[in-house]
Amino acid sequence: MRILNFEEFKREMPLMIDSMIKGAVFIHPTDTIYGIGCNAEVSSAVRKVRQLKARATNPFSVIAPSLEWINENCVVTKEADEWLEKLPGPYTLILKLKKKCVAKSVNSGLSTLGIRIPNHWIRNVVAEAEIPVVTTSVNRSNEDYMTSLEDLDPAIKGGIDFVIYEGKKEGKPSRIIDLTEAVKVIER
Does residue 67 surpass a pLDDT of 60? Predict the structure, then answer.
């Protein structure tokens, strides 16, 4: 497992993005907390994230590469469009899918998908990669999420290809907004 700060990641960005596209499993910072992620189109990588988290079926969210990607792949109602205007930000928007755009294991075969565009430079990396990236808290199911490298669960650490680390994070997980029917804010 490699640990890179922002400057190191930036220097190697083409190589790192290629690694992401091919299915690397990695830890990344966001505007809220650290996430564990991978290319959401690569089933084997998504399965590995599920194994590391010991999370059998609960759906994962993705960082969308762009608003255009969201509009192309998701049903965007008037209410959803109002929430999309708040992005980038600390929200996960649950939208209905128009078509299959991620590996089935991302959302457990549901017809919906949680979408994020964080207010953080990681969104630019995802945009450049032009892939949806799984983003879920770095923790085993029902355990505390990672705030620094010191509390990274050893069971997860052993399966990670690289970590983009920017110090301790004091945030909390993104707010979930279900836009599949009426607008519904889900408290954590």
Answer: yes
Q: Which residue has 């899918």 as its token pair?
A: 97
Strand partners, 94: 114, 178
- For the entire predicted model, the pTM comes to 0.93
Q: Return the structure tokens found at 4.
A: 């890179």
Question: In which region does residue 120 sit, left (phi positive, over 0), alpha (psi from -120 to 50) or beta (all else)?
Answer: beta
Contacts with 18 (C-beta within 8 Å, 6 or more apart), sequence order:
none
Helix (H, G, I), strand (E, B) or coil at 123: helix
Q: Which residues pair with 37 in a beta bridge?
A: 26
Distance between CA atoms of residues 37 and 26, nearest Å: 5
Lowest mean pLDDT among 39-43, 68-72, 181-185: 181-185
Whether the CB-CB separation of 130 and 123 falls below 8 Å is answered with no
User: Which residue has 């708040």 as its token pair?
Assistant: 86
Tell me which amino acid residue 41 is. E
